[in-house]
Amino acid sequence: MSGPLMTPELVRLEVDPPGDKLAVIGLMADLIAATGRADRAGLEAGLLQREESFATGMPGGFAIPHCRTDAVQEAALGVLRLAEPVDFGAADGPADLIIGIAAPAGTDDQHLQLLAQLSRALIRPEFLAELRAATAPEQVSDLVMGVLEPTEAPAAAAAGTATSAGDGAPGDAPVLLAITSCPTGIAHTYMAAESLENAAKDKGVTLHVETQGSGGVTPFTTEQIAAASALIVAADVNISGRERFAGLPLVEHPVKRAISHGPQLIDEAVAAASDPSAARVSAGGGSAAGEDTGSAGKQSWPRRIQGAVMTGVSYMIPFVAAGGLLMALGFLIGGFDVAFVAQDVATGYSLSSLPGAQEYEGATGMLQTDRAGLALYLGAVLFTLGSLGMGFLVAALSGYIAFGLAGRPGIAPGFIGGAISLAVGAGFLGGLVTGLLAGLVALWFTTLTPPRWLAGLMPVVIIPLVTTLVVGGLMLLFLGRPLAALMTTLQDALTGMSGSSAILLGVIIGLMMCFDLGGPVNKAAYLFATAGLSQGTEAAFEIMAAVMAAGMVPPLAMALSTVVRRHLYSPVERENGATAWLLGAAFITEGAIPFAAADPLRVIPSMMTGGAVTGALIMAFSVGSQAPHGGIFVAFAISPIWGFLLAILVGALVAGALVTVLKEVGQRRQGALA
């Protein structure tokens, strides 16, 4: 570490605010850049980008605009005390005390520990009062540097060491764990930890905190996890190591809520520790079905149902990928006649049964083929395997939707309901219905309190049996035929689409694929396409091609934009752009999520425009895909491949150009405000 983080030159008192918070951030960039520690334009861009993605106003009338960027050569802290407060997005009002944190992209551990100490100090009202009472820059500098003295204990805590708040709770009081994490890992991570620790100390509750910040993570010990009664997760990013806490009651909120409502989170965790129906961390490391992921109370029913459907789609995708790709490989190796030969392979025919000539006579009749011998046989084997895999789609969808709602007791009724849907011709629509029905019925049974002698039989015998009877009976007696008729009507309508109506369908598919970049709307379009693959019609193949091509556009478009206009993006975004080339090529739409999260109002409309263009072109060129996933790596299953590539190229160019123009205009406006 070189010089001190703060000097009197980095402090300005009683500053007349130049305008809104964007102008104040520009003033902070001026202050820090004037000391030679940072490039002014790059620092301001980093601070503004952070502010756009997450407002930095904090309870108590202060704000902490901060960033880590290559534009900073030496870490620095700047303080602006405003004569009139400015709104920085805090719920309790505007801020008059602005503490700017500028960190180099390669900030060392010692600097990160000191910045974490400052973040913790800002939670203390007495420290803020001292900063407001200071009459000279030297006093402010001394106060800040006073809390940054590198003592061993704070440094360890800043690096993420599990700590305990309070002098120890009564023997029967719960022991709580908390994990805090924010996108940059500099400020909010440690402020949330300090807030929760102070609240736990005031309430006499034992709390261990793991900060997953830029300074690294020192995880909980095995003993701390074993003694814990509940877990608090205060984070705006995915935390690592959730699987360590499987079964623990869970309270989960954004990191900012822990800063502003620490005592409430402690109360929620204490209550959850003694609540048998509380949300819990699932064995898979995620949250159990029905968990509380919002800021108040239980998750709403619409969100729980949406989450269950997403769970079903997520577990169904491996069946789609394996089955669909095996079928596509079968066509590639054995030709399009493998579907005919596969019927014989499945009933016991072997390689020796297949002649070397082009004419094949099997149990199902005579066939003139364009392949023969080993190629035809291997293609038929692969096609058979794929067909069997695809046959599980509806059952897997239904079973895992039920699992998402009710846990393990819902799996068997859900799978059986899906099989019934397939048998009566209700398809994936029936699978959705049976999955939700099975999950809701099984979930209701889990709320009952049976006698102790019966409790052990409930999840493995009683609930699956009765739920299957209810769901199966409803499907066979009442729901199956109407759903089958609806499915048939939908299939006939899609099969009959041509010309302008098919192009309109392509536009709609493209918009859905790019609306939430891997979210529920995206997955709904994907489910619609993959469920139709088993029909083997040209219309189904074209819909699949439109879904895959449109889903490839967002990451490719953002990668292109980061290359064409590098100055519009932070170093981290440029790195994400380099990765996005491969993600886009492989049909991983989620590769564009980091860009959309930082600038949704410009990125998402641009991506939807490009996706709509691509979907329309796919339909106009009559491009079909027999593979459900893989992007350009399954080119053998796409025809005509030139139409597929051209549609993606045009869509990516449109989306990339549009997002670049919008970002250029936005940056010019910000420059004018500064």
TrEMBL record:
Top-level taxon in the UniProt lineage: Bacteria
InterPro entries registered for this protein in UniProt: Bacterial_PTS_Sugar_Transport (IPR050864), PTrfase/Anion_transptr (IPR016152), PTS_EIIA_type-2_dom (IPR002178), PTS_EIIB-like_sf (IPR036095), PTS_EIIB_2 (IPR013011), PTS_EIIB_2/3 (IPR003501), PTS_EIIC_2 (IPR013014), PTS_IIB_fruc (IPR003353)
Membrane topology type: Multi-pass membrane protein
GO molecular function: carbohydrate:proton symporter activity; kinase activity; protein-N(PI)-phosphohistidine-fructose phosphotransferase system transporter activity; protein-phosphocysteine-sugar phosphotransferase activity
GO terms under biological process: phosphoenolpyruvate-dependent sugar phosphotransferase system
Region of interest (Disordered), ranges: 281-300
Keywords: Cell membrane, Kinase, Membrane, Phosphoprotein, Phosphotransferase system, Sugar transport, Transferase, Transmembrane, Transmembrane helix, Transport
Sequence ranges assigned to domain PTS EIIC type-2 in this UniProt record: 305-674
GO cellular component terms given for this protein: plasma membrane
Chain ranges passing through the membrane: 308-333, 374-403, 415-445, 457-479, 500-519, 539-564, 576-597, 603-621, 633-659
UniProt keyword annotation of Cell membrane present: yes
Localisation: Cell inner membrane
Domain spans labelled PTS EIIA type-2: 4-147
Domain named PTS EIIB type-2: residues: 176-271
Ranges in coiled-coil conformation: none
Main location: membrane
PANTHER family per the UniProt record, alphabetical: FRUCTOSE-LIKE PERMEASE, FRUCTOSE-LIKE PTS SYSTEM EIIBC COMPONENT-RELATED
Protein name, UniProt field: PTS lactose transporter subunit IIC
